[in-house]
Amino acid sequence: MNELPGWRLEESTLGDVRDADWRVAVLPMGATEPHNLHLPYATDSYEAWHLADLCCRKASELGGRVVQLPVVPFGTETNLRAFPLAMNLQPSTLFLVLRDLVASLEASGIHKLLILNSHGGNDFKPFLREIYGQTKVHIFLCNWYQMIRDVANSICEHEDDHAGEMETSLIMYFRPDLIRYQETNNPAGTPELAADEGSRRPLRFEALREGWVGLSRPWQLLTTNSGSGNPHSATRDKGEQLAEAIAGRIGPFLAELSQAELDPFFPFEPDA
Ligand SMILES: [Zn+2]
Q1: Distant-in-sequence, close-in-space partners of 133: CB < 8 Å, separation ≥ 6
Q2: Tell me, what's the pLDDT at 3?
Q3: What values do phi and psi take at 126, rounded to 5?
Q4: Residue range 154-210, pLDDT digits in tens
Q5: Is 235 helix (H, G, I), strand (E, B) or coil?
Q6: Beta carbons within 10 angstroms of residue 179's beta carbon
Q7: CA 30, 120, 9 angle in degrees (round to 5)?
Q8: Which of 76, 91, 171, 244 is 20 to 30 A distant from 269 in Cα terms?
Q9: pTM for the whole structure
Q10: d(CA 65, ligand 1 centre) in Å
Q11: What is the separation of C-alpha 163 from the centre of its chain, rounded to a whole number of angstroms?
C-alpha cells in the first residue's frame, strides 16, 4: 500500500491526527467564478489546493510539521456578479468563516497559520488587523500571485490579471484534463484554447490607469468573457516552473515557521 502524504487533513483519520505533531496549518483559499471560456470555475480552488499541497510537501521534506487544511472553495465575487454562478461570500461573511476556523485551530493547539490565497477578490489584510489580539494563533498571509510576479515576468509573455497566461499554465500543469480547446484551422493542427484574447476595456481616467486611485472593477465592463490577460502562450512547462518557484519560496518558510519558538518576541528576533 502506498503511504499517504502526511500533511493532508482531508485524508487523515483521527488516529493519524492524534499521532501527528503539527505546528503550522496552511489554509488554501479559492473561489468559484468564470475564467474566460477555457478554464473551469474552480480554477482558483485547484490552484490553491495544488500549491498548498506542493508547499506542504516541500516543508515536510525539510522537517516542517505542517497540516494542509481543505480548500475553502468560495470567495468574494461582488464585482463579478453580472456573470452567472459567480458564488459570492461578502468580505464580512468570509471574515466570520475565517474567524471560526482560526478558533478551531486555537482549540486544537495549532498556533501558527498561513492563509494561502489564490483569489484577487479576497482581501484578507483587514481580517488580520481585525482579529489581531483576539487569538493565540499567529496568522500569516500570502497571495501567491503577487509573491511570484518577478518569476512570472521572466517566463510569461503576457501579464496575467485573471485567467491569463500564468493561471492557464498552472491549470495545464495541475489539471490538464479540465482545459477546453477549440477546432483550429492552423496548418500544424496545434490545439488552440477555447478562449478569447482576454483584452481589457481601458479605464477613462489616468489616475485609475496608473493605479494611484483605486476602485473595484465591474468585470462585465472590463472584459468580454471574464478573462483579463492573454492566455494563448500558456504551456504546461511554464506552469511547472511557476509552481516550483512558489513552493520553493513558501515551503522553506513553512519549515522555518514550524521550527520557530513562540517566545514573546515572535515573529521578531529575540534580544541578543
Ligand atoms: Zn483565478
Answers
A1: none
A2: 65
A3: -60, -30
A4: 999 999 999 999 999 999 999 999 999 998 877 777 889 999 999 999 999 999 999
A5: coil
A6: 19
A7: 25
A8: 244
A9: 0.95
A10: 29
A11: 13
Nearest by Cα to 160 from 27, 29, 31, 39: 39
Distance 163 CA to ligand 1 centre (A): 6
| Domain residue extents for the chain | 9-259
Ligand 1 centroid, distance to 38 Cα (angstroms): 12
Give 235 Cα–ligand 1 centroid separation in angstroms: 16
Q: Work out the pLDDT band at 78, boundaries 50, 70, 90.
A: very high
**Alpha carbon distance 225, 151 (integer Å):** 27
Residue 176 is placed in which grid cell? 490538464
Which amino acid, one-letter code, is at 28?
P
What is the DSSP secondary structure assignment for residue 75, as one 8-state letter?
A: B
* CATH architecture assigned to 9-259: 3-Layer(aba) Sandwich (3.40)
- pLDDT tens for 224-259 read 999 999 999 999 999 999 999 999 999 999 999 999
Q: Return d(Cα 205, Cα 213) in angstroms, integer.
A: 9
How far does residue 263's CA lie from ligand 1's centre (Å)? 38
- Residue 2's pLDDT is 54
CA of 116 to the centre of ligand 1 (A): 13
Q: Read off the pLDDT of each residue in 52-71 and give the average, rounded to a whole number.
A: 98
Angstrom distances, CA of residue 181 to CA of 9, 83, 105, 191: 34, 21, 42, 6
**pLDDT of 190:** 80
